[in-house]
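> tool_call: predict_assembly(chains=two)
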Amino acid sequence: MFDASLQEALHKATQYTRQEKNEFVSLEHFVWACLSLTPVLELFKDLDQDAEVIRKDLEAFVSRMHPKVDKLGSNYNPEPTIGLHRSIDRALKQAQSSGKQSITAFHVLLAIFEEEESYALFCLEKTGLSPLILMEHLSSESHEQTGDVSSKDPLKQYCENLNLKFQKGEISNLVGRQAEIDRVLEVLSRKNKNNPLLVGDPGVGKTALGESLAELIETKKAPDKFKDLTVFSLDLTALLAGSKYRGDFENRLKQLFKSLKEIKNPLLFIDEIHLVVGAGSTSGSNVDFASLLKPVLTDSHLKVLGSTTYSEYRKSFAKDAALSRRFQPIFVEEPSKEETLEILKGSLESYEKFHAVKITEEALETAVAQAAIHILDRKFPDKAFDILDETCAHESTLKKNFTIKKEHILKTLSRVYKVSEKATASSSDQKVLELADALSEKIFGQDEAIEELAANLTLSYSGLGPKGKPLGAFLFTGPTGVGKTELSRQLALHMNVPLVKFDMSEYMEKHSVSRLIGAPPGYVGHEEGGRLTDEVSKNPHCVLLLDEIEKAHPDVINVLLQVMDSGELTDSIGKKTHFTRCTIIMTSNSGAREAERGSMGFYEASTHDFSDKALKEFFAPEFLNRLTSIVKFKSLSRPQLKSVVEKNLKALKEDLLLQNTKLKWDASLVDWVLSAGAEKGMGARPFERFINKNVRVALAKKMIQKDPKAKMNLSLSYDGKKLVVA
Amino acid sequence: MSDSQKQYDQSPDSDTSVKEPSLYSVFLLNDDFTTQEFVIDVLKQLFFKTEEESFKLMLDVHNKGKAQVGIFTKEVAETKIFLVHQAAKENSYPLKCVMEPS
């Protein structure tokens, strides 16, 4: 088939023929048309031939030698000559035999070389064009599917003209940042090393700052010196992509710098400039982009503006001393909440237009305020934009012309950033107020502990508690089986946050610290990160339960000191994890045995002293000192144990209901479990075991015999010797 | 000196030198079967002659055996001859048309 270039050539040739009132579309007409095609013109440029001269020559020939036929009228369709037909046929056959699907104008031009005694061929030969050159061109083209790269404008290929981008309205206006802009302009005005380098955390707006230079120039706000500056943004990927052969990359760069030199006042903006270190270097050579860039940087004509993050700056950029000394770093700080709000307002219109929504001012304020509280590992204004964009995206997919309000922002927080909706409510938190009542329904006999926990949490949730610390760091002490772990579980359930549990008996060795915060560099597993930091950064709002803390190695406990004190933990790769929305609960049995022993002799109320003493022996004072509170759990008395037994039986009843079976029991059963199942100093846990072993197993036999669909009523009692199931 | 040596002795320039191609004259040839009307039609339709010119050329073909009907580039001459032969074949006439360098 014919490709676009050939079709265009034939079309133009036909038009030309009609215009000249010639009878046939001859080879001359066709060659004339080919000489207007860009790829053909490029080939002639390489041959140092002026295509325009040849065209004029052909035009003269056509008007001299091809008779004008007035009779044909103006709308006839001129036929190609036999010669042109033959040439196209030959080109098609040649392409077919070499397995090509389509032919280009070049193929036909090549075929014309066999049309002897035609003026078209005469003209082509005059330019020095030979079949060999055409064949070489065609085969080089098939090597390089993308087309002849070398002859295109490198500025268009590898750069984007930001001035034009601004004129098209694709750059959003910059708000604020006056100090940094002034500084950039100052550095640009220097005689030598006029290359500013924007350094700042990800998301603070470095790219926006670079792009805004174009805005400054286009809106005529730039100083006179820079009013004709053209800002080009370098596309490093385009520069690297497809540079297959040794020297391709260097060649492209050279061309790029050459074209930049021809421009009056160019500024090259290289985003993520740390990538130039090592870019384009191959295993065999150390010549990378950076080393090619160095000579250009000293040139006062071409200015280069770079942008990179702190960590990348340190990691790769600053190491190349020769490169970094040619740049003047300008540190871009994170904007304050107020500045962010201004920036958000500045971009409001583009977001409203894009998502076809309306955004209230209150929504903007909420987005900024909530981002400040809940998204701690990212920077303004990026994180505020993120919340806003997410909200708009979510709501606009559901309805059109929607108005984004405060509550939609809050919804996004819980949906995308896993911040529980309750945690975002700024007014007094109802859930915390209900905490004590709700927990005492589930946990028996620990009213004091629950009261203490609830009081401390109320303080934290109200915002009156200490800043920059976890919501609470509690040490639950008490004998086993009294509900320490259960209380943590119920707390998480009630507050609607995940429970992250770590069994500290797994962290008994000194080296297990690295499991929590990640292995140090050079050790196996360094890349994996730490379990504790990973879990908490995944669920920043959680109840963090460290079970049996006294079993952990003291070094592990030392790590926790920092968490309790400053609410953050730095893992082995330097990433900070924030614990400020965490409730940390540690449980311990230490001191329980002493307390359990009870008082020998006369005083009753001294159990606390015993356990306090044991705690002090076990934990370092700096640890105890940092706890919000030590919550002591008491051993359970008989009526409380009875409640636990009934709770367990109720759980059994619910299990059976799923199998169409109703269960009843009388007081004799409860008494039996209480007396036979109890183990001294073991709390409530033995009852569950006892019920499992004696009652569940007996019921299990019944359940297997029974038809799964049939309904059944069972009652349990104890006749003084054994369990009766009826 | 052998023939092959002679070829080498020729300068490469003379080999590749280009000269402007010449033009060709197209002739119609007489035969005993083609009607005069058809020849006039061909002259009018394909060579864009007027009625009088056509008549005169037809007589030339008839009396002198052949007549020059036009001068064209080789390519156009070739196409014209093809069209004449095509038309003659369609109408079952043995009319012949040739070209010669002029």
